[in-house]
Amino acid sequence: MPSHRGIIRLAALGAVALGALTLSACSYTEEAKPKSGNYLATQPDSGPAGGEIEDGISVQDTHVPALARLDSALLAALQSAAADAQASGVNMHVTSGWRSAAYQQRLFDEAVVKYGSMNEASKWVHSPSLSKHVSGQAVDIGPTDADDWLIQHGNDYGLCQTYANEMWHFELATTPGGECPPPLSNPSDERAEG
Which conformational region is residue 51 in: left (phi greater than 0), alpha (psi within -120 to 50 degrees), or beta? Predict the structure, then answer.
């Protein structure tokens, strides 16, 4: 899909007006571009308000937008799993949760530069229109021992590793105690509807 460069204007609003206007360039595919009346179109590109997490955060840090804007069922399952993991001696933290469409687009643009093409980038990062992070239905977990624990026990909570090349990425993909579908090889694969 062709993309074009758009300018997003981010203004700091609130009781203390800084009077600064920040211009930030992001490219969008037409289909992925947030519409002006859309809630996601009003979200900042970066920082905690856009879903960025600098270091891993506790699953209890629900005041942080990356967790506060997760699907409530996903958050509840994650908190329950983290408590049980902790009881087993495994510390679990969230490295990414909900993301604004603009932040997701920036991650995709960075992946295109890193991997050399949109096709290769899509094996690691979805565009905003496809990302389960943007809809609050995906979460990335760390460290590796927590990923391993969740891969082994996540289905008890309905949590499943959905991509084989991303051991840290989990979604609610079954009912608690159900069987997780086999992970797709990467985000660019599509699950056959059946």
Answer: left
Going 31 to 110 to 114 to 190, the CA torsion angle's sign is negative
Task: Outline where 21-117 has alpha helix (H).
Answer: 65-68, 72-87, 101-115
Predicted local distance difference test score (pLDDT) of residue 189 = 86
Tokens standing for residue 124: 């690691």
- Let me know: does 132 contact 49? Beta carbons within 8 Å: no
Six token digits for residue 86: 């902790």
- Cβ neighbours of 25 (radius 10 Å): 11
Nearest C-alpha neighbor of 188 from the set 133, 134, 122, 130: 122
CA 142 to chain centre: 13
CA distance 13 to 171: 33
Q: Which residues of the chain have pLDDT under 70?
A: 1-46, 191-194
